[in-house]
Amino acid sequence: MNAGKLLDVCGYAGKLLIENGAEIYRVEETMVRLCKSFKEVQEAESFVISTGIMLSITIDGVTHTKVLRTRSKGVDLNCIAQINALSRESSTRHFTIDELHERLTEIAHMKHYSMGQMLFFSALSASGFALFFEGNWTAAFYSFLIGMVIEAVTLFMNTYHLNNFFINAIASGIAAALALGIHTLDPQADMDIMIISSIMLLVPGLAITNAIRDTVAGDYVSGVARALEAVIVAVAIAAGIGFVLSIGMKGGM
């Protein structure tokens, strides 16, 4: 058996899970299960944090280890579900290393939602939050438009792999500027509701949830790291909105 190739494939599965928002325990469990699906593997151990993976397997009394660095972050629950299903299937069906790699590659390149769908449903979410926060239909309509713009800007900046802090700061600043401009043209539109409902698209809900789950599961390093990530995103959102509103209020004065 090619131990290096097996480590590459199982490490790739773990990397896909982390980069798509999976919890740490799920990543470790999935990689170990995939490794142990091969009868030649006598022992498999993994150690994962939110920015890296360490995976080792023992074959014929010799231990082989691989270290991976993870960088990009995103949310794709379908990708996580597909890899989990593959790891469970590997427990009952024997895959070759090449077959595993092929399946993982197919999962990684699955067709996602179109840009139009993402823009529409992001905008719809923003308008829904406007109504949830007791805004009127006017605020909901404008929040729909602002949410669409925010999503378009975020998708555009993500194509250049910009830092998350700057992406969230710029997107929230644009949201505040649009809300301020709309309120100036239409005083009936509640500026606060428009800002709050539109920036809900940027709030790191998954990072907060995973931080709590990782901490409860005993993965304190990853829990703290993800909690800090959520705090940084919150600071970026506040900075973007605060900067634009401070300029807008001074200009209005």
TrEMBL record:
- What subcellular compartments does it reside in? Cell membrane
GO MF terms on file?
transmembrane transporter activity
Q: Does the keyword Methyltransferase apply?
A: no
Ranges that cross the membrane: 113-133, 139-158, 165-185, 191-212, 224-247
The record describes its membrane topology as:
Multi-pass membrane protein
Under Pfam families, the record lists: ThrE
| Gene Ontology cellular-component annotations | plasma membrane
Residues forming the Threonine/serine exporter-like N-terminal domain are 8-247
Q: Which GO terms describe its biological process?
A: succinate transport
Q: Which UniProt keywords apply?
A: Cell membrane, Membrane, Transmembrane, Transmembrane helix
Q: Which family does it belong to?
A: Belongs to the ThrE exporter (TC 2.A.79) family.
**Under what name is this protein listed?**
Threonine/serine exporter
**Species of the source:** Amedibacillus dolichus
